[in-house]
Every structure is written in structure tokens, then in C-alpha cells.
TrEMBL record, chain A:
Protein name in UniProt: Transcriptional regulator
An MF annotation (GO) of this entry: DNA binding
Phylogenetic classification of the source organism: Bacteria, Pseudomonadati, Pseudomonadota, Alphaproteobacteria, Sphingomonadales
InterPro entries associated with the record: Cro/C1-type_HTH, Lambda_DNA-bd_dom_sf
Entry keywords, A to Z: DNA-binding
Cross-referenced Pfam families: HTH_3
Automatic annotation (TrEMBL), chain B:
Organism from which the protein derives: Sphingomonas desiccabilis
Domain of life: Bacteria
Protein name: Uncharacterized protein
Amino acid sequence: MHNRIAVFRAEHGLSRRQLAEAVDVNPQTIGYLERGDYKPSLELALKVAAVFDVPVELIFSLTPFEAIGASLRRIGVEQ
Amino acid sequence: MSDRQHRFLAWLDRSVMWTGVPDLATGTPRKRHLRWPPLLALLVSSGGLLWCLLHPGRSYWIGYTLIMVGFFIANLMPIWGPLRRFSERADEFERQQRRDSLLVGLAAAAAAGIGGIWLTVGMLAMERWPATVAQQELTALAFYMMALFSAVPTLHASWRTRPLGEEE
């Protein structure tokens, strides 16, 4: 499973510890999640999505996410 | 107090903190990856068991001592290893890690137990070991199994995940 937790965390200016406290897990668990070493339960995935106020599929995906640079280039071309 | 004394005392403080004993005393033991100590415990106790099997006579105590050394090291693993105890609060990742690692430890101890008991029964049936030797071997096996059950879960949990950096 792929995720963009680190991107959303950086965007919201949250430390790993702050996010961990918000979803009631150990900060190390957030680290393992970000690195892809651990697949979260549905409950944890929903909690993480709720913290960033986005649908869960924007953070977690079964297929790799498009690189941010590629997304920006594509948007630039479309505009 | 001179600057050198101050640095020495600070170094002593850091050394004590590194051991994890102060965290243990406050009831919040520090959890860290222990990759090599459980491997050492397993190597020493396995060597001891092998010695007991190959030298069941008068030099049996050498193997028994090695098993006890491994058993002692293995018993320290749950204190400082990455797995949380059942009495500690654990999140879903830690609960899964604990469940998987304990299952691997249980399987390893069970495999050693089954192998050891059948070996002892076979040696008794073939009259290669007298009853006293079989008793000694079973005692050694019991401590070896306990060493396995203490060290293998820590070993499994420590190698399954890579340690995290400060803000990785």
C-alpha cells in the first residue's frame, strides 16, 4: 500500500509526534507508515485522513502515486 | 567544580541514560532495535545444547553453563527490546508486531521441544543414553527452549523493521 502521509504532514506543518497524538498512536508508528513498512487498519487510515480533512483515497492508494513534479507539469500543460 | 569534572559528570549521566536503566526505573522502558544481542544469546545457548548432546558425560556442565549464559542474555531482551509487554499500552502496529514475533518465538520453542523430546526418546530406546543423561539433556533442553522464547521474538521484531531516524 502506498501513502502520501509525509507530503500532507509537511503541507500542514505537523511533526510526526503531533500527528501521532492526533490519531492516538506511537510516533514511531507514523514513521513506519510513511516508510511503507506497515499497512494501517481501516480505522487508522480514516483517522489520518480526518486529521488532514481529505478523503482517505487521497492519502492511501494500492497503486503508486504520481510524483508531485509530474503532477505540476501536467497541470501546467493543461492550463 | 572544574570544567573537566563537569564534562566527566555529564559523560557519566549520558552513560547511565544510554543503559536505559533510568527509563526502566520510571516505568517507561525505552524500546529499541536489538539485532545482535539476541543472536548472541541464541548462538551461545545453541552451542551449549550442541555441547550437551555431543558430550553427555562428565563435561556436560560446560554446555550447561553456555546454555545458562545464553538464557541470562535472552532474558534481558524483553526489557530493552522493541516489543511492548502486555501490561504496557500499545498501538495497533505494536500489537501486530508483538503478536507476530511471539508467534515466531513460540514456533521456534515448540520445534526445539518436539525435536529434543523425540531425540531423547530415540536415544533412550536405542539405549545410547542412560536415564540420568536423558534427565540432564531434558533439563538443558528446557532452559534452551526458555532462551528461545525470550530471544527469538526480539530477534524477529528487530530484523523485521529498520530503525527510524530522528525525523525520517
